[in-house]
Amino acid sequence: MIRIVRRPPDVLLDSSFTPIQEFVMPKTSIAPAGPAALTLLLGLWGIRRENSMWRDEAATWQVAHRTVPEIWHMLDRIDVVHGLYYLFMHGVFAVFGDSLLALRLPSVLAMAGAATLITLLGSRLADGYTGLAAGLAFALIPAVQQYAQEGRPYALVAACVALACRLLVEAIDSPGAGHWVAYSMAVLAGALLNWFSLLVLFAHAVTIALARPSRGTVLRWAVGSSGAVLGTLPLVMASKAQSGQVAWIPPINQSTLLGLLLTLLAGALCAWLARPRRDHRTPRGTRLPLTALALPLLVLPPLLLLAVSLAHPVYLSRYVLFSYLGLALLIGAALRALADRLRMPPRRLIVAVMALALLGLLPVELSLHNAASRVDDVLSTAKMVAAVHETGDGVLYIPAARRDTALVSPAEFTGIQDLALVRGPLESGTLNGVEGTPKQIADAMLAIHRIVVVSDESAPSAPTIRDRAKQRVLQAYFVRCSETEEHGRRVTVYQRRRTRHDGFGQPDVGPSLPEKRVPAPLDPSN
């Protein structure tokens, strides 16, 4: 018995649609599970990273352990840009306890959520296969894997932007007030976690222009986006007053430009491969082409941040991590179009390409899940100090930001005196406390027989007068006894040498040791 299936005229006119496709196409309720599961699996794989924690995560760790009034006290002076994230992590630690798993699991879950949203978005803008390929591609992007395993806000920002993109499509197709309110709230949430995510509004402005919606839809988008900007404005103004904490960001270099150029070229190639054929019709239920959303999202935020950085260096790829959402959508669309051109079953091509990508990226994936993948490790540094220090020793940090290792692992520093600190982080409302004057530091050093110095493995000479004073006293009055380097940091033990006087001048001790190179201050809060 033959059953005749009636289809709407728009489906009959689409020669790319067949009855077979209707039955083999992934259901939207099932397709997101694959990318979300893959993202979750990769995020949980080695989540402790060999029991390591790098300097940025150390900032999250120590601030999240403070009380809410103590956090507010600090935000009034520094790092207000991450205030909402610190309060969120304070709640996570209060409910689930403090551990490396609790520190990083919110980022893993946020990336899994972003993968789900990007899968649903690709399915809405094209079809289920496009969404599936986009979600899997997003999970395999190395930068996504890196920040899915860090106790910082960038994965949460990506999830907020993915939600905003999904709501934008819904609002364009069904311009009700509820969709626009939700869109505005999603953009605002991402901006409060990191206000550089407001750059997504420039991309969405281009998307709106390409979609050519009604004047009312444009007006509603303008109102919703303006509401998000106005809600973020107090944070922007407060963080501008603390702009010194991003002064360490270097100017744009060739490697940064090359990496960005290659990413944009990959996106452009995918957009070209995914270009619609003559018989292509926009999927039912949406009036927005996929490339109209994905390409501006990939291109505009990093290029705008790059342009700003030409005058004031602020470009870091993690600030615009959410732009990879656009790349993932373009990859998904390109694979779907390639399957059509090759006349291959889309699912077979997607699985084959993703399996090859997973194997090809395996060396990168392995490196991202060990301690050496980050610039340093505050936990291994604390163990080095515990192995060499003796009761009654003094400790110095060059620069002062290296004190984070003691703030994260105070038990390893029992019986050792911080020679430079005059006001602790809680009292001063800072991340690393306040150090004394050069003379106060020198006097404290001259009263100690042995000093342990925590610094970086390689960096420029000490930039502050306090650090230079530490170096001068060490060079003139102390002899280097031992030195250990591991995971980006150096622990050096100095012992007092015999001199004919104890004044703060150059003693008559013969030639001094060559001055060691010490690190420039890198703010751990960015």
Task: Give a brief description.
The protein has 526 residues and is α/β, with parallel strands linked by helices. It has 23 helices and 7 strands.
Descriptive notes:
- The structure is a single chain.
- α7 (100-125) crosses α16 and α14 (254-273) runs antiparallel to α15.
- This protein is of the alpha/beta class and 526 residues long.
- The strands form 2 sheets. Strands 2-1-5-7-6 form a 5-stranded mixed beta sheet, sandwiched between helices.
- α20 (404-408) links the parallel β1 (394-398) and β2.
- It has helices at 9-13, 19-24, 33-44, 55-64, 68-75, 83-96, 100-125, 128-140, 142-148, 154-173, 177-193, 200-211, 215-240, 254-273, 290-309, 324-342, 346-360, 362-368, 378-388, 404-408, 425-428, 438-446, 465-477, and strands spanning 394-398, 417-418, 421-423, 434-435, 450-456, 478-486, 489-496.
